[in-house]
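anyone else get weird line breaks when pasting these?? whatever heres mine. first is seq + tokens for prot A
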Amino acid sequence: MTILQKIGLDSKSPAETILTTYNQNETPHMSAIGIQTVNEDKIKMKLYTGTKTLQNIQNKKAATINIVNNAVFLSKQGLPEIFSRKIKSSDFAKAKNVNSPYLKQADAIIEFKVEKTIEKTVSDRIGKSNITEVIGSVKNMEVKNSYPHPFKRAEFYLIESAILATKAIESKKRQKEKLAHEYVEKIEIFKNKCEKIAPESRELKTISEILDYFE
């Protein structure tokens, strides 16, 4: 088993992570991104064309993958339209081997340099989108927190709700209200499931806040 696999990454299924980069003025930027491995020392991700994250990666040719076990934090970073981001420089430190910041609260970090980018057009129910596949060469890996974190169903419900919310937001931008409503209805189902098993959880509170945005 490779170190990337031990951290939790593989080539079969994307892992939800926080990607940190530097803006042009050297301030930190972060976003929630799915990551997969290519081999034992290369990773890949798909970024929408025109996003700040892609611009930063193209400018700096580097970034850091942050593995976090906090599903609430992860989900909120993926929904800037719903949750305000309070980014402080003190929350970050500079990566050792690449020109990128990393989150001090990360459980593990993977520093990489961009090896190549491939532009693609993909289609789904929402419509056509231009994306860029980024392939990176790993330059450093560190495990910051070795304590185990058990799987929680409430966390799964929240992460799926956050992903559905991004689809609903994009559907609304493209004036596909019916499709957006379908995604919101699915979030309602996850909320109900979460309410049954974890009625006082932060995960349920966050799912409720996501739904409030669409009312």
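and prot B, same format (seq, then tokens)
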Amino acid sequence: MHFFFRVIHLLLTLALLATSAHAQMQLSGFGTFGAAISDQNFVYQRFIDNGGTLERDSLLGIQLDACLTPAWGLTLQTKLAPANDNDNNWEPTLSWAFLSWRPNNDLLIRAGRLRLPLMLHSANSDVGTTFTFARLPIEMYSLLPTTDVNGLSFTKTWFDGAREWTLESYAGTTHTAWRYYLRDEMPPLFSSGSMFLGYDFAMLGSVLSLRERNNLWSIGLHRTKAFWDVGNSPTQLPFVQLIPNTDIGYYKIVDAMPGPPIHYDDYYDLYVLKLGAKIALPGKIDFIGEYARRRFSNAVVGADTHAAYLALSKRIKHWTPYVYWSGIRSSQQALDLMLRMNKNRIPAELVDAQQAAVLNATQRAGADLLAPFDQYSLGIGTAYHLSPKTVIKAEWLYTRTGVLSSFVNAPTGEESGGREINVFSLSYSLTF
């Protein structure tokens, strides 16, 4: 598979070099300069706290589109943004690099590095001028830690009167990092703070969409096999009883702890079912809504979730005010496990105080590593369109966490659940 993508990369390079003298080139760019600040002293969504940040929403991108022949095209896009495997660095990434072939108006085949067709705004999620929100709802647009894949895609379009049907299917692989946040330090096993675990993803999926006038409906099913960089993935953590036939004990989260073996599998097997709709309502009001079920078939983890958002907006000359509700919640089975693990404490009289402290820290770390989600948000904002290529956005976002939420960097000794967060955002986006 890696050899295949090296060949694709070589073909893209050769195609560009061989035809650059005759190809029709178009260079464009996009960027967002965004500021956000919250009313809390802990970090939310990787970067936002009461000190303010420019890192949550700011980015810069450049795209080259080359029409090699009437049927063949080449697209390259690079982006400078905060790294997806480090909270402190920015890095350039090659977002798109694909060769496209359109033998007729109804068929499109692409090969290379592609954007995943997960959500309604996935293809344009980096271009702030193309959507109304100050930022796309994180509850939905964080279902996978990557937006791109190296592979092949097939898009077929057909018409039924005024209806336009589109089927897009893809298959490919990519490497990405999944972020976790640990409240407690537990040397030598774990350090407190952000931790990024690398995974190789093998992905495939299909999306069927229907467009009729100004309305759009879509349904998609995606499957990902996530292979952990360091080996097999833990799928079940055994509970070790210190007193037989009681709930006094601990969950074994690493192999070095005493107790029965942890269950492992070669990979995490996850599915995403996604429904979406954009509907033009009377009074020039636009509705958009999406729902996704992310299911892990072979493990009980916090990333086994339901997520959704609903939004209304109305264009009034240069202004587009909007309101949206969004939410995400882990499966009840996963939440119950994380609650038990997070609240589990070893009585000091059973073991010495130091050993009890270490065991209790492992339980909180285990709950953090299961990455739970339980939160709901309300966003109210407006976009002001200076021109078709420039827009200023302002937004107030209220978030309330339920049991636990991995979007919150809870301080040491505290919980991510039961929090209320207000975020104020101001951004300027442009295309050129």
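btw re prot B: The chain has a mean pLDDT of 93. The helical segments are 2-19, 332-343, 353-369.
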